[in-house]
What we know:
By secondary structure, this protein is mostly beta strands. Helices cover about 10% and strands about 40% of the residues.
Amino acid sequence: MFRGPTTCRFRLALLNYCGVLLAIVPSAAYARDQPPPEQESSNSMPLGSTLLDPQSPTESLPDLGVEWPDMNQPDNIEPMEAEEDAAGMNAEDAPPLETPVPVAPVDYVAEHDYKVVLRGLDGIEDDQFRNRFNELSVLREGDGDKANVAQINRRAKEDIALLQRLLRAKGYYDARVVSDILPAQDGGRLQVMLDTVPGPQYILDEVNLPGLENAHENSDALYKAFSVKSGDPVDADQIIAAQLGLTVALGENGYPFAKVDEPVVQIDHEARHGDLSVTVDPKGYRRFGRINIAGDDIFSARHIQRIARFQPGDPYNASDITDLRRALIATGLISSVSLTPKDAGDGETVDLAVALEPAPPRTVAGELGYGTGEGYRVEASWQHRNFFPPEGAMTFRGVAGTQEQSLSAIYRRNNYKRRDQVLHAQVSASNINRAAYDAKTLQVSASIERQTNIIFQKAWTWSAGAELLTSDERDSIGVDAISQRRTFFIAALPLNLIHDGSDDLLNPARGFRLGMRISPELSFQSGTFGYGRVQLDGSVYQPMGNRVVLAGRVRAGTIVGAHRNQIAPSRRYYAGGGGSVRGYGYQDIGPRDANGDPIGGRGLAEVSLEARIHFGNFGIVPFVDAGNISTDFLPDIKNFQVGAGLGVRYYSSFGPIRIDVGTPINPRSGDPRVAVYVSLGQAF
């Protein structure tokens, strides 16, 4: 039977998929139609057509040839004698019949537990199909609650219609679904069987995008963005995904006001194919115009344009709008932002209307910590993130600890002159009392930095700055460890260059990082002399399956141009601790004086290797670290101090929290047996 074309409109709501209404085949066994017996007379009426006259006399029943049983006879029945069949085999010679497994009949009144079984969906039932059925199924919804047979049948009828809609959404327009209820065995649950014969999958014959020919700019990219082609199945999910892909591509390629209509499919059931049509109205190609903002209490339009990654005249790109929204929120000064494209009226440009809601600009923070070799540490800070608009933050910070006391005032202007460029200035006074040295320091510093962040992780970052400091420091000299105090006046020009080829800023699992720090310095203590501090860092990350990442780190440093004793103790290299060689106390590795205190050096060498094993939000990290300090300018790689241990990670939304427990493998006198480190982020 021929059925004409059917027009279908695919919508996001799954229940709106259309298709041909199929007859539902009942689950009961079909009786075979028997031909009616031949009539003895041509005048007799067909079976079932004789009219009975209630006034007619009752006729005697015909003799059926079967005697009525004598009800007075006893119930004992003689067994039948074995008769020989046509093949000559007696009944006693026949093979015994298998005893059927007794199955209790279904009680149609009682309530039963049941389970749902789908059959006939091999190659069709993927995760998406299964999840949709489970979410919408009436049988699944009632699974676990007892129901009688009538209730189960009503639910099965609705699920049959649901399966047919789901199958039509995948292009199976001729699918047939029947249900059956199988009795329970051994006290189990009833089985509600939904058997499917999907039939052929319909194929798209023609795919048309009327109106898209008016998009003259980037037309090739737009046509490629619609992923459904002629010869593909009439799959509603694929068609909707292609529609969304085309909508996104229009916004990414200069068409901010484009409109894409709902897909329309005309189904030809006889040919078992469909024709797809999606009407597109590009509404004109546009470039970025001006940024307009109502009021500039937080940011001016000029500052927002500085943050944006586009300039007036650039082709419109919706991703640039999304990026600007995220960057404005990341300043910490905005609680919500609205960015609306507005037609400039010239037919060529689109302006951006910006509406901002301010966030609280002040923050009070505190921190309490403990580290082996560093002791207890309490830090408190007050910050105003827009003290000098725009984005000029002032922070006042104080530290009180067993080995450190300090006060500092920090000025930081984010997005200075350009996006992700930071101007930094600081004045600080500190008193540091460590085993290696005591230092009372007053420092003034300033720097400009090109920074990376989780919004835009950059391949290259750098910083350049200047430092001026005066420091009164105590250390020891000579074999007798004679204590001495000296005052140092130091000027430095630190430079940093970093290349980040990793896949994640806080928790890398693949790639590498390289960093270099150079700091030429002048010291005005006991005459003027200069020296240079150079440090190289490298790390690599390699996944080993889905759960394990191997990570390695190498660090090397040198100070050239001056003797160790000339260099201020606070400017020398040290090793040991949570960010260095775990298992040892802070700065405990390297040469020591007669009192067993570290004296620092001019050469630094460190290596680390760890395996990061993930278990969902948690992980364990076995690690091995090694390092040494030399008094010479060349790093000493022969006499490494080695530490090993195990760490625990909790992977929070803002980065991994780590706890590392290490022990020295080749300890020296005075080294701790166990060292514990707690911090945010991976060790490297």
